[in-house]
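Two folds, back to back.
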Amino acid sequence: MDIQENIINKVASSGLITLNLEEYFHKGERLVYDIKDNLFHGLILREKDFRDFIKTHDWEQYTGKNIALICSADAIVPTWAYMLLANRMMPFVNELVFGDLETLETVLYTKALAKIDINSFANERVVVKGCADIPVPVSAYVAITALLTPVVKSIMYGEPCSTVPIYKRKD
């Protein structure tokens, strides 16, 4: 007996649009610049020494990099010191934030997601891909949900074959 089965790919014919946040990952190198290395005995920032450092440091080494600016020492660092660092780094870096690597990743994703033409998702059923090979911060999932909610028909999380419903517009 020859029984021919028709296999139908229900996922492909579902009309779901998969949005993979990994595609918005900035590939540039991430570095932490810790101002503790500029502190005298790890305690205080001496203005003259710091200004000399600012003048002589090779800032070009940060070209194209993403920098998280922190102070890991328990010291009071004047705001102007961070401002001087930012001023010297900005002509070279891709991104500079005050905060840790998680803050940096959030800023990178926020900027990348802001460039999406959200209207291209109008009235669509969107699955935000869940399993990632690259770690995607929770902040990126929150940001894309906030951007999509006003325009889409529905938002789901996961894979097209197994999703968790997040939002469904009431028609």
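---
second:
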Amino acid sequence: MNVPENLKYTKDHEWIRVEGGFGWVGITEFAQGELGDIVFVELPAVGTKVEQGKTFGTIEAVKAVSELYAPITGEIVEVNKAVQDQPESVNKDPYNNGWMVKIAIANPAEVSALLDAPAYKSLIGK
């Protein structure tokens, strides 16, 4: 199970990679494995405000539909159109090509409340 050390994680299985005042967000390898074959991803429009812990979209797999939760508060500044066109990219490469949204971070202090890689591994029993 791949849990990159350079990312932060939520208990809802989202990850965020912070660079400067921005965060790239996706779902973890564990989450995509639990969902199975992803067939549809619904993401918000650029300019949408998101709030930490609140829903920002949905992801649909053959087995289930799941909500996506924002790891931090901010504004969507970019949406990965490739994920919407080819949702299976989340299964193939959840941490790189499978990212979903880029958020301008409103409150950098929220990042420190997220799980680091060892804490996330403990959460998922790895």
